[in-house]
Protein backbone atom coordinates (compact mmCIF):
# COMPACT_ATOMS: atom_id res chain seq x y z
CA UNK A 1 0.00 0.00 0.00
CA UNK A 2 1.37 3.44 -0.82
CA UNK A 3 1.96 5.95 1.95
CA UNK A 4 0.27 9.33 1.66
CA UNK A 5 2.35 12.22 3.01
CA UNK A 6 0.31 15.30 3.91
CA UNK A 7 0.03 18.07 6.53
CA UNK A 8 -1.90 17.08 9.64
CA UNK A 9 -4.98 18.80 11.04
CA UNK A 10 -5.19 19.71 14.76
CA UNK A 11 -7.35 16.64 15.57
CA UNK A 12 -4.51 14.43 14.36
CA UNK A 13 -1.90 16.00 16.64
CA UNK A 14 -2.00 13.37 19.41
CA UNK A 15 -1.60 10.51 16.93
CA UNK A 16 1.23 12.45 15.30
CA UNK A 17 3.07 12.89 18.60
CA UNK A 18 2.60 9.26 19.58
CA UNK A 19 4.11 8.21 16.24
CA UNK A 20 7.06 10.57 16.77
CA UNK A 21 7.75 9.12 20.21
CA UNK A 22 7.60 5.57 18.83
CA UNK A 23 9.95 6.62 16.02
CA UNK A 24 12.44 7.80 18.64
CA UNK A 25 12.08 4.56 20.60
CA UNK A 26 9.85 5.71 23.43
CA UNK A 27 6.68 3.70 24.07
CA UNK A 28 4.77 6.47 25.88
CA UNK A 29 4.37 10.20 25.36
CA UNK A 30 5.19 12.68 28.14
CA UNK A 31 2.17 14.92 28.85
CA UNK A 32 4.03 18.18 29.62
CA UNK A 33 6.31 17.79 26.64
CA UNK A 34 3.32 17.01 24.40
CA UNK A 35 1.46 20.13 25.55
CA UNK A 36 4.55 22.30 24.98
CA UNK A 37 5.04 20.81 21.54
CA UNK A 38 1.40 21.36 20.61
CA UNK A 39 1.66 25.07 21.39
CA UNK A 40 4.45 25.37 18.81
CA UNK A 41 2.95 23.25 16.05
CA UNK A 42 2.59 24.94 12.65
CA UNK A 43 -0.01 22.56 11.26
CA UNK A 44 0.37 23.46 7.60
CA UNK A 45 4.11 22.64 7.89
CA UNK A 46 3.68 19.46 9.93
CA UNK A 47 3.75 16.41 7.68
CA UNK A 48 2.76 12.85 8.47
CA UNK A 49 2.97 9.72 6.35
CA UNK A 50 -0.29 7.75 6.54
CA UNK A 51 -0.43 4.02 5.93
CA UNK A 52 -4.22 3.85 5.76
CA UNK A 53 -5.30 5.45 9.04
CA UNK A 54 -1.99 4.90 10.81
CA UNK A 55 0.64 7.66 11.11
CA UNK A 56 3.93 5.94 10.26
CA UNK A 57 6.25 8.90 9.67
CA UNK A 58 6.49 12.48 10.88
CA UNK A 59 8.27 15.77 10.36
CA UNK A 60 7.61 19.44 11.06
CA UNK A 61 9.02 22.89 10.49
CA UNK A 62 9.39 25.90 12.76
CA UNK A 63 9.48 29.18 10.83
CA UNK A 64 12.45 31.20 12.10
CA UNK A 65 14.60 34.13 11.12
CA UNK A 66 18.23 33.04 11.46
CA UNK A 67 21.23 35.33 11.78
CA UNK A 68 23.91 34.96 9.10
CA UNK A 69 27.49 36.35 9.05
CA UNK A 70 27.43 40.14 9.09
CA UNK A 71 24.25 40.45 11.14
CA UNK A 72 21.61 40.00 8.46
CA UNK A 73 18.92 37.45 9.03
CA UNK A 74 17.09 35.07 6.74
CA UNK A 75 13.73 33.31 6.78
CA UNK A 76 14.70 29.78 7.74
CA UNK A 77 12.84 26.49 7.86
CA UNK A 78 13.75 24.86 11.17
CA UNK A 79 13.20 21.16 10.49
CA UNK A 80 12.14 19.01 13.43
CA UNK A 81 10.25 15.90 14.65
CA UNK A 82 11.71 13.70 11.91
CA UNK A 83 10.80 10.06 12.47
CA UNK A 84 9.73 6.90 10.71
CA UNK A 85 8.22 4.02 12.67
CA UNK A 86 10.51 0.96 12.89
CA UNK A 87 7.93 -1.03 10.89
CA UNK A 88 8.34 1.30 7.91
CA UNK A 89 12.06 2.10 7.77
CA UNK A 90 14.42 1.94 4.81
CA UNK A 91 11.73 2.13 2.18
CA UNK A 92 12.31 5.73 1.25
CA UNK A 93 9.75 7.39 3.52
CA UNK A 94 12.19 9.91 4.96
CA UNK A 95 13.46 10.63 1.45
CA UNK A 96 9.91 11.35 0.26
CA UNK A 97 9.17 13.59 3.24
CA UNK A 98 12.40 15.52 2.71
CA UNK A 99 11.60 16.02 -0.97
CA UNK A 100 8.10 17.33 -0.20
CA UNK A 101 9.36 19.50 2.63
CA UNK A 102 12.20 21.11 0.67
CA UNK A 103 9.94 22.01 -2.26
CA UNK A 104 7.60 23.67 0.24
CA UNK A 105 10.57 25.59 1.69
CA UNK A 106 11.48 26.77 -1.82
CA UNK A 107 7.86 27.76 -2.58
CA UNK A 108 7.78 29.87 0.58
CA UNK A 109 10.98 31.66 -0.41
CA UNK A 110 12.97 30.52 2.59
CA UNK A 111 16.58 30.53 1.33
CA UNK A 112 17.83 28.04 3.94
CA UNK A 113 16.63 25.11 6.01
CA UNK A 114 18.36 24.02 9.20
CA UNK A 115 18.17 21.17 11.68
CA UNK A 116 19.79 19.22 14.49
CA UNK A 117 20.50 15.61 13.54
CA UNK A 118 20.04 12.63 15.85
CA UNK A 119 22.68 10.82 13.78
CA UNK A 120 25.25 12.53 11.61
CA UNK A 121 24.91 9.94 8.83
CA UNK A 122 21.35 10.92 7.88
CA UNK A 123 21.11 14.37 6.28
CA UNK A 124 24.14 14.88 4.02
CA UNK A 125 22.37 12.98 1.25
CA UNK A 126 19.60 15.59 1.34
CA UNK A 127 22.05 18.48 0.96
CA UNK A 128 22.43 19.46 4.64
CA UNK A 129 25.97 20.32 5.66
CA UNK A 130 27.48 20.65 9.12
CA UNK A 131 27.60 24.42 9.59
CA UNK A 132 28.17 24.69 13.34
CA UNK A 133 29.73 22.55 15.99
CA UNK A 134 29.42 22.82 19.76
CA UNK A 135 31.21 21.75 22.91
CA UNK A 136 29.91 20.13 26.04
CA UNK A 137 31.92 21.51 28.99
CA UNK A 138 32.82 19.96 32.30
CA UNK A 139 35.04 21.41 34.99
CA UNK A 140 36.01 20.65 38.56
CA UNK A 141 34.69 23.76 40.28
CA UNK A 142 37.51 23.85 42.81
CA UNK A 143 40.03 24.00 39.94
CA UNK A 144 38.18 26.74 38.10
CA UNK A 145 40.38 29.67 39.02
CA UNK A 146 40.24 32.56 36.58
CA UNK A 147 43.64 34.03 35.72
CA UNK A 148 42.44 36.50 33.11
CA UNK A 149 39.13 38.23 32.87
CA UNK A 150 37.60 41.47 31.71
CA UNK A 151 36.46 43.68 34.59
CA UNK A 152 32.91 42.93 35.69
CA UNK A 153 31.50 45.52 38.06
CA UNK A 154 27.85 44.70 37.65
CA UNK A 155 25.73 42.60 39.93
CA UNK A 156 24.13 39.21 39.59
CA UNK A 157 20.56 38.68 40.71
CA UNK A 158 18.48 35.51 41.06
CA UNK A 159 15.05 35.99 39.55
CA UNK A 160 11.82 34.06 39.06
CA UNK A 161 10.71 32.35 35.86
CA UNK A 162 8.21 35.15 35.25
CA UNK A 163 10.91 37.79 35.50
CA UNK A 164 13.23 35.67 33.37
CA UNK A 165 10.56 35.58 30.68
CA UNK A 166 10.51 39.37 30.72
CA UNK A 167 14.27 39.97 30.89
CA UNK A 168 16.00 37.12 29.01
CA UNK A 169 14.51 37.80 25.55
CA UNK A 170 16.07 41.29 25.45
CA UNK A 171 19.54 39.91 26.17
CA UNK A 172 19.00 37.03 23.77
CA UNK A 173 17.93 39.34 20.92
CA UNK A 174 20.92 41.53 21.58
CA UNK A 175 23.29 38.59 21.20
CA UNK A 176 21.36 37.10 18.27
CA UNK A 177 21.73 40.29 16.23
CA UNK A 178 25.41 39.51 15.51
CA UNK A 179 25.63 35.79 16.11
CA UNK A 180 25.43 33.51 13.04
CA UNK A 181 23.36 30.42 13.78
CA UNK A 182 21.02 32.00 16.33
CA UNK A 183 17.36 32.32 15.47
CA UNK A 184 14.34 34.30 16.62
CA UNK A 185 12.44 33.05 19.64
CA UNK A 186 8.79 34.12 19.77
CA UNK A 187 7.03 34.61 23.08
CA UNK A 188 5.32 31.24 22.58
CA UNK A 189 8.74 29.73 21.98
CA UNK A 190 10.13 31.12 25.24
CA UNK A 191 7.03 29.97 27.13
CA UNK A 192 6.89 26.47 25.70
CA UNK A 193 10.35 25.55 24.52
CA UNK A 194 13.13 27.52 26.20
CA UNK A 195 11.59 27.99 29.66
CA UNK A 196 8.39 25.93 29.77
CA UNK A 197 6.35 26.23 32.94
CA UNK A 198 6.23 22.46 33.19
CA UNK A 199 9.21 20.62 31.83
CA UNK A 200 9.17 17.07 30.52
CA UNK A 201 11.77 14.59 31.67
CA UNK A 202 14.07 16.51 33.99
CA UNK A 203 16.46 13.64 34.68
CA UNK A 204 18.06 13.68 38.12
CA UNK A 205 18.40 17.44 38.31
CA UNK A 206 16.35 19.49 40.76
CA UNK A 207 14.71 22.90 40.41
CA UNK A 208 15.65 25.54 37.92
CA UNK A 209 17.55 28.74 38.66
CA UNK A 210 17.57 31.95 36.66
CA UNK A 211 20.25 34.57 37.18
CA UNK A 212 20.86 37.89 35.45
CA UNK A 213 23.95 40.05 35.25
CA UNK A 214 23.12 43.77 35.30
CA UNK A 215 25.00 47.05 35.09
CA UNK A 216 23.18 50.21 36.17
CA UNK A 217 19.97 48.21 36.22
CA UNK A 218 20.40 47.08 32.64
CA UNK A 219 20.46 43.29 32.08
CA UNK A 220 23.50 42.39 29.97
CA UNK A 221 23.56 38.64 30.46
CA UNK A 222 21.80 35.68 32.01
CA UNK A 223 22.30 32.06 32.95
CA UNK A 224 19.78 29.27 33.51
CA UNK A 225 20.92 26.25 35.44
CA UNK A 226 19.87 23.29 37.54
CA UNK A 227 21.66 21.47 40.31
CA UNK A 228 21.93 17.89 41.49
CA UNK A 229 22.99 16.85 44.95
CA UNK A 230 25.32 13.97 45.49
CA UNK A 231 23.40 11.60 47.81
CA UNK A 232 26.44 9.71 49.00
CA UNK A 233 29.11 12.33 49.41
CA UNK A 234 28.95 15.51 51.35
CA UNK A 235 29.79 18.82 49.81
CA UNK A 236 31.24 19.95 47.59
CA UNK A 237 30.16 17.08 45.37
CA UNK A 238 26.98 18.22 43.64
CA UNK A 239 26.65 18.95 39.94
CA UNK A 240 25.55 22.24 38.45
CA UNK A 241 24.23 21.96 34.91
CA UNK A 242 24.24 25.19 32.90
CA UNK A 243 21.34 25.07 30.48
CA UNK A 244 22.15 28.37 28.81
CA UNK A 245 24.53 31.26 29.42
CA UNK A 246 24.03 34.32 27.25
CA UNK A 247 26.05 37.51 27.45
CA UNK A 248 25.84 40.69 25.44
CA UNK A 249 29.18 41.99 26.81
CA UNK A 250 32.47 40.46 27.95
CA UNK A 251 31.90 41.81 31.45
CA UNK A 252 28.55 39.98 31.62
CA UNK A 253 30.27 36.81 30.42
CA UNK A 254 32.94 37.04 33.12
CA UNK A 255 30.43 38.06 35.79
CA UNK A 256 28.20 35.07 35.09
CA UNK A 257 31.03 32.50 35.15
CA UNK A 258 32.24 34.07 38.38
CA UNK A 259 28.80 33.62 39.82
CA UNK A 260 28.57 29.97 38.70
CA UNK A 261 32.02 29.11 40.06
CA UNK A 262 30.94 30.63 43.35
CA UNK A 263 27.91 28.39 43.92
CA UNK A 264 28.81 26.36 47.00
CA UNK A 265 28.18 22.64 47.56
CA UNK A 266 29.00 22.05 43.90
CA UNK A 267 31.89 19.85 42.80
CA UNK A 268 31.35 19.76 39.04
CA UNK A 269 30.02 22.31 36.62
CA UNK A 270 28.69 21.12 33.29
CA UNK A 271 27.42 23.16 30.38
CA UNK A 272 25.69 21.93 27.24
CA UNK A 273 25.80 23.17 23.67
CA UNK A 274 28.51 25.74 24.26
CA UNK A 275 30.23 27.66 21.51
CA UNK A 276 33.50 26.36 20.07
CA UNK A 277 35.13 29.80 20.42
CA UNK A 278 34.56 29.85 24.19
CA UNK A 279 36.58 32.59 25.95
CA UNK A 280 36.40 30.69 29.25
CA UNK A 281 39.17 28.35 28.09
CA UNK A 282 41.48 31.35 27.76
CA UNK A 283 40.45 32.81 31.10
CA UNK A 284 41.30 29.82 33.28
CA UNK A 285 44.55 29.54 35.20
CA UNK A 286 44.53 25.83 34.35
CA UNK A 287 42.69 25.54 31.02
CA UNK A 288 43.14 21.77 30.68
CA UNK A 289 40.71 21.37 33.59
CA UNK A 290 37.98 22.47 31.21
CA UNK A 291 37.05 19.19 29.56
CA UNK A 292 35.49 19.90 26.18
CA UNK A 293 33.47 17.33 24.28
CA UNK A 294 32.84 18.30 20.67
CA UNK A 295 29.66 17.50 18.83
CA UNK A 296 27.97 18.51 15.63
CA UNK A 297 25.18 21.00 16.09
CA UNK A 298 23.53 22.98 13.27
CA UNK A 299 23.10 21.44 9.81
CA UNK A 300 22.30 23.95 7.07
CA UNK A 301 20.72 23.35 3.65
CA UNK A 302 20.91 26.10 1.06
CA UNK A 303 17.63 26.13 -0.88
CA UNK A 304 18.06 29.39 -2.79
CA UNK A 305 21.73 30.02 -3.59
CA UNK A 306 21.61 33.70 -4.69
CA UNK A 307 19.27 34.75 -1.85
CA UNK A 308 21.41 32.98 0.75
CA UNK A 309 24.79 34.19 -0.53
CA UNK A 310 23.57 37.77 -0.98
CA UNK A 311 22.15 37.91 2.56
CA UNK A 312 25.48 37.48 4.31
CA UNK A 313 28.61 39.62 4.38
CA UNK A 314 32.15 38.56 3.63
CA UNK A 315 35.25 39.26 5.69
CA UNK A 316 37.21 40.30 2.58
CA UNK A 317 36.45 41.03 -1.06
CA UNK A 318 35.75 37.96 -3.10
CA UNK A 319 34.87 37.29 -6.74
CA UNK A 320 34.25 33.64 -7.53
CA UNK A 321 32.31 31.32 -9.77
CA UNK A 322 30.85 28.54 -7.64
CA UNK A 323 29.53 25.41 -9.32
CA UNK A 324 26.86 23.87 -7.11
CA UNK A 325 26.05 20.16 -7.51
CA UNK A 326 22.68 19.24 -6.10
CA UNK A 327 21.00 16.06 -7.31
CA UNK A 328 18.36 16.20 -4.53
CA UNK A 329 17.13 19.76 -5.23
CA UNK A 330 17.96 20.19 -8.88
CA UNK A 331 16.68 23.77 -8.96
CA UNK A 332 19.83 24.96 -7.17
CA UNK A 333 22.23 23.18 -9.59
CA UNK A 334 24.48 25.33 -11.73
CA UNK A 335 27.17 27.98 -11.69
CA UNK A 336 26.91 31.26 -9.77
CA UNK A 337 29.03 34.39 -9.92
CA UNK A 338 29.53 35.69 -6.39
CA UNK A 339 30.93 39.18 -5.81
CA UNK A 340 31.05 39.96 -2.14
CA UNK A 341 32.78 41.96 0.54
CA UNK A 342 32.30 43.52 3.96
CA UNK A 343 29.42 45.71 2.71
CA UNK A 344 27.33 43.13 0.91
CA UNK A 345 27.25 40.84 -2.11
CA UNK A 346 25.65 40.01 -5.42
CA UNK A 347 25.18 36.49 -6.65
CA UNK A 348 23.88 35.61 -10.12
CA UNK A 349 23.73 32.60 -12.37
CA UNK A 350 26.54 32.50 -14.94
CA UNK A 351 27.93 30.43 -17.81
CA UNK A 352 31.53 31.27 -16.87
CA UNK A 353 33.80 28.41 -15.89
CA UNK A 354 33.90 27.38 -12.22
CA UNK A 355 36.54 28.38 -9.66
CA UNK A 356 35.14 26.06 -7.00
CA UNK A 357 32.90 23.01 -7.31
CA UNK A 358 30.85 22.11 -4.24
CA UNK A 359 27.98 19.84 -3.31
CA UNK A 360 24.98 21.56 -1.76
CA UNK A 361 25.86 20.03 1.61
CA UNK A 362 29.35 21.55 1.54
CA UNK A 363 28.00 24.95 0.59
CA UNK A 364 25.68 24.64 3.61
CA UNK A 365 28.67 23.68 5.79
CA UNK A 366 30.69 26.74 4.70
CA UNK A 367 27.78 29.17 4.54
CA UNK A 368 27.74 30.26 8.20
CA UNK A 369 31.48 30.97 8.23
CA UNK A 370 32.59 28.10 10.46
CA UNK A 371 33.89 25.55 7.94
CA UNK A 372 36.72 26.20 5.48
CA UNK A 373 36.45 25.25 1.82
CA UNK A 374 40.14 24.30 1.86
CA UNK A 375 39.50 21.82 4.67
CA UNK A 376 36.58 20.34 2.74
CA UNK A 377 38.88 20.10 -0.31
CA UNK A 378 41.47 18.23 1.74
CA UNK A 379 38.70 15.83 2.73
CA UNK A 380 38.01 15.20 -0.96
CA UNK A 381 34.66 17.00 -0.89
CA UNK A 382 35.33 20.27 -2.74
CA UNK A 383 37.31 21.02 -5.94
CA UNK A 384 39.26 24.20 -6.59
CA UNK A 385 42.72 25.69 -6.89
CA UNK A 386 44.55 25.96 -3.56
CA UNK A 387 44.88 29.70 -4.08
CA UNK A 388 41.22 30.25 -4.86
CA UNK A 389 40.22 28.12 -1.89
CA UNK A 390 42.40 30.23 0.41
CA UNK A 391 40.74 33.39 -0.88
CA UNK A 392 37.30 31.85 -0.47
CA UNK A 393 38.18 30.84 3.11
CA UNK A 394 39.32 34.35 3.96
CA UNK A 395 36.07 35.79 2.64
CA UNK A 396 33.57 33.20 3.99
CA UNK A 397 35.25 32.71 7.41
CA UNK A 398 33.62 34.70 10.19
CA UNK A 399 34.10 35.80 13.78
CA UNK A 400 32.26 34.83 15.91
CA UNK A 401 32.01 31.26 14.74
CA UNK A 402 28.45 30.05 14.17
CA UNK A 403 26.68 28.97 17.34
CA UNK A 404 23.21 27.59 17.99
CA UNK A 405 22.68 27.40 21.73
CA UNK A 406 19.50 25.31 21.72
CA UNK A 407 18.17 22.13 20.13
CA UNK A 408 14.89 22.51 18.24
C1 LIG B 1 16.31 8.40 10.45
C2 LIG B 1 14.99 7.85 9.92
C3 LIG B 1 13.94 8.94 9.93
C4 LIG B 1 15.21 7.32 8.49
O1 LIG B 1 13.97 7.01 7.88
P1 LIG B 1 13.85 6.00 6.63
O2 LIG B 1 12.48 6.15 6.08
O3 LIG B 1 14.29 4.65 7.05
O4 LIG B 1 14.91 6.61 5.61
P2 LIG B 1 14.98 6.30 4.02
O5 LIG B 1 14.42 4.94 3.75
O6 LIG B 1 14.38 7.41 3.25
O7 LIG B 1 16.56 6.29 3.84
C5 LIG B 1 17.26 7.00 2.85
C6 LIG B 1 18.72 6.57 2.89
O8 LIG B 1 19.31 6.99 4.11
C7 LIG B 1 19.88 5.90 4.82
N1 LIG B 1 19.59 6.10 6.25
C8 LIG B 1 18.52 6.71 6.77
N2 LIG B 1 18.59 6.71 8.10
C9 LIG B 1 19.75 6.12 8.42
C10 LIG B 1 20.37 5.83 9.65
N3 LIG B 1 19.80 6.17 10.82
N4 LIG B 1 21.56 5.21 9.62
C11 LIG B 1 22.13 4.87 8.44
N5 LIG B 1 21.56 5.11 7.23
C12 LIG B 1 20.38 5.73 7.23
C13 LIG B 1 19.13 4.69 4.27
O9 LIG B 1 19.86 3.51 4.42
C14 LIG B 1 18.93 5.06 2.83
O10 LIG B 1 20.14 4.87 2.12
P3 LIG B 1 20.14 4.39 0.59
O11 LIG B 1 19.43 5.49 -0.15
O12 LIG B 1 21.58 4.28 0.28
O13 LIG B 1 19.37 3.12 0.57
C15 LIG B 1 14.51 6.64 10.78
O14 LIG B 1 15.52 5.69 10.81
C16 LIG B 1 14.14 7.02 12.21
O15 LIG B 1 12.99 7.37 12.48
N6 LIG B 1 15.11 6.94 13.16
C17 LIG B 1 14.88 7.22 14.58
C18 LIG B 1 14.48 8.67 14.82
C19 LIG B 1 15.53 9.61 14.27
O16 LIG B 1 16.71 9.40 14.42
N7 LIG B 1 15.06 10.68 13.60
C20 LIG B 1 15.90 11.72 13.06
C21 LIG B 1 15.79 12.90 13.95
S1 LIG B 1 16.89 14.18 13.53
Ligands present: coenzyme A
- The helix count comes to 11
Mean pLDDT: 96
Q: What is the straight-line distance between the termini? A: 33 Å
The percent of residues in helical segments reads 25-40%
- The main sheet orders its strands as 1-2-3-4-5-14-6
**CATH class category name of the largest domain:** Alpha Beta
Largest sheet: 7 strands, mixed
Specify the CATH architecture of the largest domain. 3-Layer(aba) Sandwich
How large is the share of residues in beta strands? 25-35%
- Topology-level CATH name of the largest domain: Aminopeptidase
Task: Please tell me about this protein's structure.
The chain has helices at residues 13-23, 31-40, 93-107, 161-176, 187-194, 250-261, 280-283, 305-311, 360-367, 373-378, 386-396, and strands spanning 4-7, 47-51, 54-67, 73-84, 112-115, 129-130, 133-140, 155-159, 208-215, 218-228, 238-247, 266-274, 291-296, 299-302, 318-325, 334-341, 344-349, 356-359, 383-384. The protein has 408 residues and is an alpha+beta fold. It has two domains: 4-132, Gcn5-related N-acetyltransferase (GNAT) (Aminopeptidase), CATH 3.40.630.30; 135-295, Gcn5-related N-acetyltransferase (GNAT) (Aminopeptidase, 3-Layer(aba) Sandwich). The strands form three sheets. A seven-stranded mixed sheet has the order 1-2-3-4-5-14-6, sandwiched between helices. The radius of gyration is 22 Å and the shape is globular. The model has no long low-confidence stretch (mean pLDDT 96). Bound molecules: coenzyme A (COA). Coenzyme A (COA) is lined by residues 23-24, 82-84, 89-95, 117-119, 121-122, 125. Coenzyme A binds at residues 23-24, 82-84, 89-95, 117-119, 121-122, 125.
Amino acid sequence: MSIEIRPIVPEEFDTFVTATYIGFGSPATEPNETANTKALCEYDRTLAGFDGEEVVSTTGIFSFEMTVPGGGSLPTAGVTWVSVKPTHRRRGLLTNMMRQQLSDVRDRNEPIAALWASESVIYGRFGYGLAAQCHGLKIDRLRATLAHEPPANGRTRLISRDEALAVFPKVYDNVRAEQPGMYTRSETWWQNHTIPEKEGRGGRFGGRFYVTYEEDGEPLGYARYRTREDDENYAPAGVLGVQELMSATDSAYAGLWHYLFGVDLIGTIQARLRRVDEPLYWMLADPRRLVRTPNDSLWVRVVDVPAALEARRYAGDVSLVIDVRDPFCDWTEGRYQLDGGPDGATCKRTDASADITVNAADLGAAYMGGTQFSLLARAGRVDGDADVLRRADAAFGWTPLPWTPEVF
